[in-house]
Write a structure and sequence with these properties.
Elements (H helix, E strand, L loop, with lengths): L5 E8 L3 E2 L9 H13 L11 E5 L10 H8 L8 E4 L5 H14 L5 E9 L5 E2 L2 H12 L3 H10 L2 H4 L3 E2 H5 L9 H12 L3 H20 L9 E2 L5 E2 L11 H5 L21 E10 L1 H7 L5 E10 L8 H13 L8 E4 L4 H12 L1 H6 L21 H4 L3 H18 L4 E8 L3 E8 L3
Helix pairs in contact: 1-2, 3-16, 8-13
Length: 429
């Protein structure tokens, strides 16, 4: 069955706020609500007109497990609009969009609010297993003597050695590697140097800053905290990013031989992004003027230890179906989890061996030109709130296509656990 285009009517996102070793000023639901309100207030329909709300979130707090429902109610969608949360690690926001697309295509929905959110600075500290067992035994103690005995057995190392929830979540349980270690694998496989990674990272900051100055982040809506402080821009973008500065940073994931540093990796960040998706009937009913349409989508799986190549495995089938080459895509948004990972994707497409052995092609697919890729910077500069990034790159790609008078783009993302996601989007007219 042919892919029936689904329209992207509008979208908005928060500024992405860098985690600074303490909980940030906004909970995940607050981020989604503030950006959602700014988006919905400019629509010609009321929030209750949505058929459903779908929100991607990789790390919801324990009191907001189905965070989509919490946010939908706070946005005024009403009791009758169902809402559900999806999780596909780094692509949770893209999965929310794809789920909306599927429901619109099969006629179960006409108008959907979809996006992603994460407040990674609020990721919990967890008790280690020894401390959990101590609590369990303490609850079973009945007499005063038994309780005193339990306290006598308590060791400070148990109490003062919490498990960092975020670090646990960023470690693949199958291959036992942190996401940054998988990026080191790709740097080694494709011979990507530290200098290449740092150069790419500096360029990400420079492009993001230039885009901000030029007003190309029109999708960002400001946040206001409880003290009245306004957050208007992504606060991880550095005007002083330089090769000299990045050269001072030590490898983090392989301290002896590694090349991946905090400076050439995406930032731990809080943020939210929303898109409104509609069928052709809904566009006509509400007289909407869409930003564009989603014309194809693809998910792929690969070795978890090579997870950063997910965009290659997901985008290539779209190109084949649409009979397009890399250069036929005007703009690409590949989420910058790590500079090594993005550069490895480019190298994989240029490799005869990789394209033959891993993708089943006759040879190299070609070269993705730097001027086509992440033209306004990416997650190395802006940050990577895991649940939101997949939605952000789709939304910004549409804005970037309009800004450059271009027509066609692909947003692609690597996914912890060894997957990739990609979406082909097009402007209209």
């Amino acid at each position: 069955m042919a892919f029936q285009p689904v329209y992207v009517v509008d979208g908005a996102r928060t500024p992405f706020l860098k985690g600074r070793n303490a909980p940030g000023p906004f909970a995940a639901s607050d981020l989604a609500v503030q950006s959602g309100r700014a988006l919905l207030i400019r629509q010609p329909f009321v929030p209750a007109a949505f058929d459903e709300v779908i929100l991607g979130c990789a790390s919801p707090s324990p009191d907001e497990v189905n965070i989509a429902r919490v946010v939908a109610l706070r946005l005024g969608c009403g009791h009758q609009v169902p809402a559900w949360t999806v999780m596909r690690n780094c692509a949770s926001g893209m999965q929310a969009i794809d789920s909306a697309v599927a429901n619109i295509q099969n006629g179960r929905a006409q108008l959907v609010l979809a996006g992603g959110v994460d407040a990674l600075s609020h990721a919990p500290l967890l008790y280690n297993e020894a401390m959990v067992r101590w609590f369990a035994q303490m609850m079973q103690a009945r007499s005063v003597g038994q309780k005193i005995g339990m306290f006598a057995r308590l060791r400070p190392t148990q109490l003062l050695s919490p498990v960092i929830g975020l670090l646990k979540g960023l470690t693949d349980p199958v291959v036992g590697l942190l996401m940054g270690q998988t990026a080191e694998n790709l740097a080694w496989r494709f011979g990507i140097s530290r200098q290449q990674m740092d150069e790419y990272s500096v360029r990400s900051h420079q492009r993001a800053l230039a885009a901000r100055v030029a007003g190309r982040f029109g999708e960002i809506v400001p946040l206001v905290d409880v003290k009245g402080r306004v957050y208007a821009d992504d606060d991880g973008v550095r005007a002083d990013s330089s090769m000299t500065g990045l050269a001072k940073l030590k490898p983090f994931f392989d301290r002896k031989y590694g090349r991946v540093t905090p400076g050439n990796s995406s930032q731990i960040t809080d943020g939210a992004a929303w898109l409104i998706l509609a069928s052709e009937a809904a566009v006509d009913k509400w007289r909407l003027a869409p930003l564009g349409r989603i014309s194809d989508t693809q998910w792929a799986g690969l070795d978890p230890a090579q997870m950063g190549l997910g965009p290659v495995h997901a985008a290539t089938p779209i190109l084949q179906r649409q009979r397009l080459g890399l250069a036929d895509i005007d703009l690409w948004e590949i989420n910058e989890a790590f500079a090594a990972q993005v550069l490895a994707c480019v190298a994989a497409w240029e490799s005869d061996d990789y394209c033959r052995d891993e993708l089943g092609l006759s040879g190299a697919l070609g070269t993705l030109a730097p001027e086509q890729l992440n033209v306004d910077g990416g997650a190395i500069a802006a940050g990577h709130p895991v649940g939101a990034s997949g939605a952000r790159i789709v939304l910004h790609l549409l804005h970037a296509l309009h800004a450059t008078n271009a027509r066609r783009g692909i947003a692609a993302i690597c996914i912890g656990g060894g997957q990739g996601g990609a979406m082909l989007v097009e402007t209209i007219g």
